[in-house]
Design goal:
The complex is a heterodimer. Chain A is mostly beta strands. Chain A has 1 helix and 23 strands. Chain A has 3 domains: 111 residues; 75 residues, Ubiquitin-activating enzyme E1, FCCH domain (Elongation Factor Tu (Ef-tu), domain 3, Beta Barrel); 96 residues, Elongation Factor Tu (Ef-tu), domain 3 (Beta Barrel), CATH 2.40.30.180. Chain A is 1% helix and 41% strand. Chain A has an 8-stranded antiparallel beta sheet with strand order 1-23-3-4-5-6-22-2. By secondary structure, chain B is an alpha+beta fold. Chain B is 20% helix and 27% strand. In chain B, strands 5, 6, 7, 8, 9, 10, 11 and 15 form an 8-stranded mixed beta sheet that branches. Chain B is globular. Classes of the chains: A mainly beta, B alpha+beta. At the A-B interface, strand 10, strand 17, strand 20 and strand 21 of A face strand 3, helix 2, strand 5 and strand 14 of B.
Amino acid sequence: MVLTLIDSDSFTSDGNAKKINLPAGADFFEVLNYTQMATTQTTGRLVKAEWQSGFADAAMHAITKEDNADTVEHTIETSGGFTYVTALPQPEAAVTGTAITAASPAQVTAAGHGYSNGDRVRIYGSTGMLQISGMDFTISNVATNTFELEFLDSSGFAAAATALSVRRLAKEDVINPAVRYITNISQASQAVVTFSVDHNYVVGQKIQLNVPAPFGMVEADNVVGKVVAISSANNTVTLDVDSSAFSAFAFPASSGYPDSFPIASPVGQNGVNPPAGSPNAGYNMAIAYQSGSFVPYMYLPAGAQSPAGSINDVIYWKAYRSE
Amino acid sequence: MTGIITNTSMSPELQLHYSEKFLATPRRNLIYSIGVDEHDPENHMGQNTRMRRYERLSTDGGELDGSGLDPAPEIVQFTDVDAKMEHFAKVLVVNDQVTMYQNDRVLNKFTLLLGQWLVEKEDRLMKEVHEGASSFVNATGGLNGDNPTEPTGDDLDDIEVALLGQDAKTILDSVQATDQFSTSGNMDSFVALCSTDLVKDLRQIEDFKVRSNFAGDKDNFRKEEYGFYGRFTFFVSSGGSVVPNASNNGSNVYNITCKGMESVAKLENNLDTARVIYRDPYVVSTVEQNATLAGRFSLARAISNQAWIINLRCTKSA
């Protein structure tokens, strides 16, 4: 067997864990903490780490500086090391929460959740705010014990939640474009639709709205509209659907969960025949159905004794595969 | 007594003898290409395939009033659905030690395994488009106290109404009743696809009919076909769609995909599908150690009409 170097690169640590995409697979992976290796009199610092196919998740062969003479020690660590993620991760273990505020955006309290900004989570088993129980959300403004459901305005909800469970999900979809939960639809000549999770829709795309009766805007149920504008900051799309005379969109009462959630699902794209200008005017080839954005990756935790290092450490990495 | 050869002192080759046949490899039901609309994009036609659906013309107006003026022309509306051709492969490396002892049988078996991988991978890819890109509703008629509940006839009736209201067409022909005890005919039906985890709940639906109660020759029905209710024929697989921990109680949620004709498209590049590739040992190793077997195929998929496919999301009763 021959080990072939399939990829190598470097990065400067920002103090956070790092994901390195390895779509073609790897049998051997190593990192060199260039900064710490070049620094003397720094004890207990990981300077090099290796992973080999067959290692348990989070394990590594660690090479650590032990004294100010730069003596190194080789150890096998069973935590804080590499994890090679080859398939879309399943939901993580549940974290118990104690509150969801009725506010804009809604804030969740879940002690020691360990999540990061931009993560996708699933809320369920809530007490007192049943109308969102089972929905997925993108989170922001993460603190040690709290985070916000970035695109949920729950200020009009009748009650706050007093208990809940939450699980972190994979950020990637299995297929694109994908279905999304809706958290609001405006009443306007061009309806603005807000989604609970970062959407991947583009201008020119058509989406179908499904709005169950408990959410008020029944006129929008089964309506198909074309996306005419997008706001990434607000996670919205603007549709060529006049909803100004529709009933108001509103979450049902907090005391019972709704039959179903309002959703948007991709339909395709359209224009008027013939399209203006060139044959492809008004079309976006990126809309084509295709596999989701998941790519197999090596996960490197951050920290003085972990492969992604501490902030401002320069890390070099190499990935090998056997032939 | 020394000098006698026993089963513990034989040479290794004689101690272990393989039975003449390999045991069966587990194989799941493949259901997610049932009822899909298959296309064959031409070779060298680029990465994306575009399917176009024209909308019906308006039936308003159109009366010729004798003035000699034609009705106003109508601008034809349409929807384009694009699907990207993607390529998938699996590689097996076989060392010459295997070749020396079991060459033909192992290579034949590995070729079969690659074939199985191909169809199971294709089934998984088709499942992903069914579960991730199509609309869904929750089952609410059950009594298990979760949201969604276990599936009920009332939930399936609602989906039938929704599909018929959107002019979805049934996929399967009716089964005519015959003079066979305890059997009855089936209406022409939509297709319903789901996990084998749900069969207990399906059988608890009032008026659900298992395949053994279908009229006619049972050999005419597919092994994946489990039963019939209302306007749906159910096909089940252990690889059916499951969304982990998505119910209000944190239980797994199952998708029962209910669909009509031409709701999902599968596109196979006609010159790059289902290829098995054998690479001679010398290519890999200087001393000709390792041969390579590989399978590859190309596939594109899409929801071609969102109005004609609905996932009924449900949980198990217990």
